[in-house]
Prior knowledge:
Radius of gyration: 22 Å
Distance between the termini: 66 Å
Mean pLDDT: 78
Low-confidence stretches: 22-50
Amino acid sequence: MTGTDGTGRTASRRHVFAAAGAVCFAAALTACGAGGDTEEQGAATESGGGGGGATLGSTADVPVGGGKVFPAQKVVVTQPTKGDYRAFSAVCTHQGSLLNEVSGGTVGCPLHHSRFDVMDGSVKEGPATKPLPKQEIKVEGDSIKLA
């Protein structure tokens, strides 16, 4: 079976199916590749991912042994021990998804379930292989701000 390809040439059924398959494959890659393996994203986050001086929230928002994700700034602030506040990029180092929850001493990614330690951002469970980049914060009274 043949048809015309819009240029006056005839296209075989094989060519039509191959083209349709290529379009579907490209669409699937676009949907799944929301960031790829993100060394570049990590580097961008390390160099100022949220805008210096912005207030993230209150120290009361960050429980001891846990943390809080601030999605607008793409930062997660943790408090591994009382009064010790740390901040990391909230962008998963696997494929660039935004981390969404902190529990059991880890920060989690909803896409492929990587988990990162609240103490140092190291990978506790893959598929991520790189730790979360550190972010600079300042604690002023009960306010947490980006440095």
